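Sat 14:20. Reprocessing the chain from the morning session after the first attempt stalled halfway. Input below, unchanged.
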Amino acid sequence: MEKRNVMQRLGWDIGGATGRWKQTAKDRLLHNRVVQAAVGKRWAIVLMLVAFLLGRANILGELAPFAIAFFAAISYLRRGLMQTSALALIAGSLLSPHIQVGSIAAQLVVFALLQKGMARYEKSEVSHAPALVFLSTFTVGLFADIVASNMTWYAVMMTSVEAALSSVLTLIFLQALPVLTLTRKNYQLRHEEIICLMILLASVLTGTVQWEIGTVSLEHSLSRYLILILAFVGGAPIGASVGVVTGLILSLANFSAIQQISLLAFAGLLAGLLKDGGKMAVGFGMLLGTSILAIYAGDATHVLQSTYESVAAVALFLLTPKGMIRTIAKYVPGTQEHAKSQQDYIRRVRDITANRVNQFSDVFKQLSKSFGQLTEQNQLLQHEAEMGHFVNAVTQEACATCFKRNSCWEGGFYKTYKYMTDMMTEVEANPEFDKDHIRAEWRQTCHKTERVLTILQKQYEKYRYDRHWTKQIQDSRKLVSEQLFGVSQVMDDLVKEIRREGQGLFLQEEQITQVLEEMGLQVQRLDIISLDEGNVEIEVVHSFRRGFDECRKMIAPLLSDVLGETIAVKQERWDEPDEGLATVRFSSAKEYEVETGIACAAKGGEWLSGDSFSTVELGNGKFALAISDGMGNGERARVESSAALSILQQLLQSGMDEQLAIKSVNSVLMLRSSEEIYATVDLAIIDLYSAKTTFMKIGSTPSFIKRGDEVLPITASNLPLGILKEIDVDLVVHQLLPGDLLVMMTDGVYDAPGHAANKELWMKRILSEMESDAPQDIADKLLDTVIRHHDGEVVDDMTVIVAKIDKFAPEWATFRWRGQGAPIERPRTVS
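Finished this time. Tokens:
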């Protein structure tokens, strides 16, 4: 009872906490819904106000294309507001002396019926909206002309013009409404969308025509207020453009305001030019622009009225909250807010991508750990299982019916157990062990020794067979564990790259750009990909002049000085040669450079050789040389050797560990075919920062290092790939020196002197006698020597790779430019 009471009390506490948590979550959800409802209601009110003004708007007192266009846009984008929008449009038309309310209402009804009919046949798409608007407007207008007995060519023409304008405005409003209501999630607006928004806002302003507060015209003040905001946000180009569009729309509604086009355009230009001075400077630009043209175009009364309208617009502008202006600025290209919003968006996408890749990396690590733990547990339990297996088998078959069972296993357990294990050891060591080899003490211990031996031998055969497949499974699990861990490491490196690219390097880019421009170079764009020491990557787009080679002579030496390490040109491309622009990538110059020479020949002078080779820079400060020799000759051997090298190269370039890459290639070759096929691999990876070279030789011939007159052999003992399920990769590490020549070859070259001769001594003598230090010359001469040794006959596929290691020497020395300033500060490396 006491325990039950305690549990009840504990349950009450947990239930109370859970209830409080649920209540908090419910309150939070309710709060979010209230906020969303408030925001939705706010925009609904704004759209109703826009509909009211567009219902009143007209062109030249005869055409009213705005109402039906806005209703069509609402019906497709905000279907829930169709009825209230229709009421607002009709209410606005009631206050216009130039618009017939019945015509507007009829257009809305006809459009709604047509859209409903299209939806019934599942044909109601946004692309059909302009056609439906044109049909509705033209039908209602034509019917009105027939009823009024006004079927003249002029009336039909005006009806057609109104219908065409309505359909065009529908397209414009469909683009502008998502921007107006800020439902666009990204901030990258096209110029067409901005123009459509300006047309929509100017159309709304036409609904205020002939509304005045005292002597101040509402349409003029609001239009200038709109221009002030956009000029302050986007500068002179946006201000002038908005002035032209707004003035044009207003002049269509009121022909007497035709001068507003030039006035608003000039005022928007001046206001935009003064944007750097702040709100007061922009307001002064508006007052100055409108006053100058008002004085030029009108009398004193007109000038005074225009000044009042501009003052009212400036006052509204000064009272506008900064948050509203910043929100608008996010949508205008070229502004700092827009650039920052784009950077924030890209940063969020980059962080999300990095986190997802990091999660995948953790998954692969956990899988690798699980496979590894499973293999270790199996190995630990294997010995105990083996012993138990033999003892149980012998006990069940030999001792179950023996009259001495109790005395052997209960009275002399340890002696009997030792007797069993000794016999098992003998059987395992010598499969030919028979009854003639049975020891005398065993016969004294058990009178069924021969029976026990027979059972042990039979069980050992089963055990050996099972152990073979168990080992295969364990080896496969181990390889899968290593491969999963290797993939996780590659993903970790990718995460570091993604986060490193997300670092803000704008200050460094600006500093480098300023230095280059002070030298007179026309830099169009400069992007810093990485500033990590030893792994610098900078991409520059600049105006080039062929023959001057400014990149190597000026830019690279200057970057070397400001970054404190040698920078070299990595890549040049001319994407738009007609415009004189070149894209050049600069990167860290390694301490050492590798020059290679290659010579090869197919057996019997054929076109296709069974050998494959690769020389590639891995991108992480390492250079790889590889040769693969497939079994036999011809196309089949070529396929196997090229497959081995292709897979190996891709794995190494992805950042996978060298030993794991070799094991992965071996497993792939084993699974490619059930036939007895294999390929040798001779791999050398040179560290371009230290010249330390790692050799991995899988069934391949020795390599040689020629250092002056001395020749050093590099050997290792491994079977070729594709023979064994599990291979042990031997790594041989040598420190190369500047001027060293590395010679790698296939067995067609190494076996040239025949089996009777000492091949290593013969090859060392041939290489030591060569006086040239050019890699290509040595490769050609070595291959020519081997072919001459066989009287001009190519007896096997032959491939030679020669690499020369030298210190990297920049072609041009570094220099400092006046006003260069302090060296570039490197960001911290992302871990």
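The chain is about 60% helix and 15% strand.
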